[in-house]
Description:
By secondary structure, the chain is of the alpha+beta class. It has helices at about 50-60, 65-80, 130-135, 145-155, 160-165, 165-175, 180-195, 200-205, 220-230, 235-240, 240-250, 270-275, 300-315, 325-345, 355, 360-365, 495-510, 515-520, 535-545; strands at about 5, 10, 35-45, 90-95, 100-105, 175-180, 215, 280, 285-290, 290-295, 410-415, 420-425, 475-480, 485-490, 525, 530-535, 550-555, 565-570, 575-580, 590-595. It has one domain: Gamma-glutamyltranspeptidase, small (S) subunit (Glutamine Phosphoribosylpyrophosphate, subunit 1, domain 1), CATH 3.60.20. It is built from 19 helices and 20 strands. Strands 3, 4, 5, 8, 9, 10, 11, 12, 13, 14, 18, 19 and 20 form a 13-stranded antiparallel β-sheet that branches. It has a three-stranded mixed β-sheet with strand order 15-16-17. A two-stranded antiparallel ribbon has the order 1-2. Strand 1 (about 5) and strand 2 form a beta hairpin. Mean pLDDT is about 90; it is low at about 1-30.
Amino acid sequence: MAGRLVAGVALVAVPLLVGSVLVAPGAGAEPGARAVATGTGGAVSTVDADASKVAVDVLKRGGNAVDAAVASAAALGVTEPYVAALGGGGFFVYYDARTRKVHTIDGRETAPAAMRADSFVDPETGKAIPFAEAVTSGLSVGVPGTLAQWDQALRRHGTQKLSKLLEPAIKLAEDGFRVDQEFYDQTALNAERFADITPTKELFLPGGAPPAVGTVFRNPDLAATYREIADRGVDWFYEGELAKEIVQTVQKPPVTDGATRKVRPGLMEAADLAAYKAPFRAPTRVDYRGLEVYGMAPPSSGGSTVGEALNILERFPLSKRDPVQALHYYLEASKLAYADRGAYVGDVPEVPLTELLSDKYAKERSCLVKADTALKAPVAAGSPDGSYEKCPRASEDGRPLSYEGPQTTNLVVSDKWGNVVAYTLTIEQFGGSGLTVPDRGFILNNELTDFSLTPAEGDPNTAGPNKRPRSSMAPTIVLKDGKPFLALGSPGGSTIITTVLQILLNRLHLGMDLPEAVAAPRATQRNTAATLAEQAFLDRYKSALTAKGQTLELFPGPPPVIGAATALEFLRPHLVQAVAEPTRRHGGSAMVVRTR
């Protein structure tokens, strides 16, 4: 396709007569799921056809993008219970077409007031408790933020009541959905630990085994919980009877009789739930080659790290004529941005966000990048102090990468008025803490394992009372001339940032349209000794990048894929293309209100 240049960015021309495109789904994809849909009246992309249909139905009934996003997220709580909804939290980015402003809502889970820096340290050994033990415990559960976030979004920007928007999810939970390969795989991955938690075993392992592909899975407990929230309001979750039940589950995990697994109690109290807030925060913003790129501020590191890497990349030529060189620069910019993320970003008051996203700081950092030589990782963080050297020496004493589970989910929605939502939500691991609130139908998160489990001096991600663990979630909205151009995000733990970056690189510079940019093979460099990549990426680029000094290894999984992105592109006024993964995690689901 011929390209055109807008504000210094190469954009790929897209045929106007596009229609809803059916991309061949991956093995196990839901029947009829489409990875690409183009049309008018609003668009949505999620990982699940049921959730996408819920969003489109809301749009067809006159709801806006915020209404549709909340309804879709509630549906994901039914069909994707191991990654989403009531037991977790997330980050919500919203473009308001009327004011042409971007807003963000922080629904990240918080640590209880009793949490301390050494809460994950075993007093007998003086070392961090085993990670798997930390995950499947009450100790890992943060105060859930999702419901408060939905409430905030609807009060400020929605047009419909939460009670109405929960109706499709209630029906879906009551009637059930057909089990696909992805649901089966996620259940099987967790079967051993689920079997040790009584309500989790009863709900998700009927008959003692994962539900078979093709069978119908129902969750009447979750339907009843949603109905109670619709009737009683959000306060019932944070201050009413359900709050007491959540605390009981955390403090006294319902372990199956005879189980030998050590499941530690948590620190959460009723007062922690009652005190929870989902605050509006100023978004991050960088201007990149004529585009405005908006994301989440701390405690997410998504907006700052994507933004810093883009600022570094802006100083280098990136062309589809030399994709290897562009990918080399992408990997080098990622190393430097992740080094600063580890040193400076967390739920602390002194994050130097303005400097991390400044052009002068990007200039200082970018001078370390060489065209034919790779920096040896981990590299040290820079000094975003406002006083910049011409080119400081690179050193190799960077902070090690902290673990984040590769799960989570992302959805993107637009409406006929031009409003846009990019929303990433999670309960952390597939299956979170593994603790299902008895008779309530949802699993609680294990987000507090996103803290550094061992205290270290100067670490901004050390656990503490009422703190929010650092996240890599990076729901992103890109504007061109003040209007939406792209919206995207992905699951994937600390690989989320590189997935968003690489999709932007593919779309803006490597000659790909958005479906190609999402589907293309990925690599993730997070200031680690080796870049981890999907097999298709290694097959295509390993030899050439190794010649430039890069070290590449196969991404281990499970699953052995990086991310599962969803994205929108605004092709021209009122014409939107929704894009989901064609094969990763068995494919996603893109839909529009009216196809063109």
